[in-house]
Specification:
This protein is of the alpha+beta class and 172 residues long. It has 6 helices and 4 strands, in the order ααααββααββ. The radius of gyration is 21 Å and the shape is elongated. The relative contact order is 0.12.
């Protein structure tokens, strides 16, 4: 019974810490995850599991480790914003998988996207004909963006500035 109460108290202490730190970070914590966000989340989960499942684990060490992960995440956020090389190191690069109605197969492979995944996303985006599709981008978070338009509509280069073009070349 004492072991159960110890586990329960540790879990409550860790969860209170995680909630408090998440509130400090704000809504960004709940957005789609980048590779870095995913790694931090897995690390926090590992620390939590280790503390809760190990009877002699020091809860304060665990809270310190989780706080350090949150501090690391908060410290890296402005660096990712201000320095492209940090963003490129930490985050995935968006990949163009379709351009002007043409599927870019090499880019699909690079993004680990299947043909069925692409078709499902096009249907979800209310595409009636491939000629309506100006671009499909697999974003750094894994979200797929579909940009619509007519054959005469050009996409502003700014919207694709950070996108890996691969076989599509560059420009609109």
């Amino acid at each position: 019974m004492a072991e159960f109460l110890d586990m329960l108290l540790k879990t409550v202490a860790i969860m209170v810490t995680i909630i408090a730190l998440t509130r400090v970070l704000g809504l960004r914590s709940f957005s789609k995850m980048s590779a870095f966000d995913f790694a931090v989340t897995v690390a926090i989960g590992s620390v939590l599991a280790g503390i809760v499942s190990t009877p002699d684990a020091n809860v304060w060490s665990g809270i310190g480790a989780i706080a350090a992960l949150y501090v690391w995440k908060m410290a890296l956020a402005p660096l990712r914003t201000h320095f492209d090389w940090v963003r490129r190191l930490v985050d995935s690069t968006p990949v163009l998988v379709m351009r002007n109605g043409t599927i870019l197969w090499a880019n699909m492979k690079r993004a680990h996207m299947t043909h069925d995944d692409l078709l499902a996303k096009l249907r979800q985006s209310n595409v009636h004909d491939l000629s309506q599709v100006r671009a499909v981008v697999v974003e750094s978070t894994g979200v797929v963006s579909v940009m619509h338009g007519g054959p005469e509509d050009e996409i502003d280069d700014y919207l694709l500035a950070d996108v890996r073009m691969g076989e599509a070349g560059s420009g609109a």
